[in-house]
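Retro notes - structure team

What went well: the batch runner handled both jobs without manual restarts.
What didn't: labels got mixed up in the shared folder, which is why I'm recording both outputs here explicitly, each with its sequence directly above its tokens.

Job 1
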Amino acid sequence: MIMKTFDEGDSLPGEIDISKLRKDDLQLGGLMLFQDPERFCFGSDAVFLTDFVKEGKLRENAVLADLCTGTGVIPILLSRKIHAGKMYGVEIQKPEAQIAGINVAYNGLEGLIDILNADIRTLGDILPGGSFDAVTANPPYISREGGLLNPDTPKTIARHEVKCTLRDVLECAFFLLKEKGRFFMVHRPQRLAEILHGMCETGIEPKRIRGVYADIQKPPAMLLIEGRKHGGSGMWVDPPLVLNGKGWDVG
């Protein structure tokens, strides 16, 4: 679903009061993003992932799917960073998907981005397999063993593997990708062994990794990972991205 037109004082029936949303300047070509401060808001990890995709130099008019899209920040940022032909943002939580639709419409991106309120575990009922040049994902980082207090809150669903697991993300990406299609993900370094093992098991060969550091003297705070469906062996480790004490956050 996509909201085609709206005024900032309007409400979406039964769900979203636009006047209660926060509007953030993405500082990229005039792009703006509405978010609900009471729910999960995007962090710097989404920005780093879109830069990582840009560095990957996808072909012109690539077709891309973003899994766990939240309020749509990744495809919206990519609209200014790559020359995609079509992008789909997939989000299981209905309010987030509705806000993502608002964001697509507000930025005039209806022809480029579609938002799907859907479960990635059953996405094959909606999108055709083997038809995407690239898949991106900023999935929940914390495994089901991470000590959930309330598994139904929006922030818990965004951070913990309540509605989807790492394996679900990898299997969905493999299903969607064309042969040799490319997968881009941001995740926590503590789960690197599980990530690489899962990628290889599902048929996505790890090809490139970059660590993101707040301080080069400390372990990385996150990892950016690229894989290729049925890719050949061989993986490159990019130079570290060091933020030199600049303020940042991870959602």
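Job 2
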Amino acid sequence: MKAWASKPNVVQNLRDAGCCSRVVEEFLSLGARGDTNGQLRLLSQHRQQLLDTVHRKEQQICCLDYLVYEMEKGGETETPAKEGGYSDENH
């Protein structure tokens, strides 16, 4: 077994990557069954979720940057509401 694959190292790495207990347990269960493809699929799904979050947060930052830009230049900040705008979640 490779050093990176020791159970404590893998669990810590998954936690550091933001995986919840359910994902950690599923990953270990798949590993116990020798289902490497299942583990890779699970990691890929979690990675995609992280990327989706990053993209949402990036868009929120862009909205704030635009507001700051408009305020600093002294222009009007009123813009038409965008379809699919952001709610107050995660504030």
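One thing worth noting from job 2: The radius of gyration is 20 Å.
We'll revisit the folder naming next retro.
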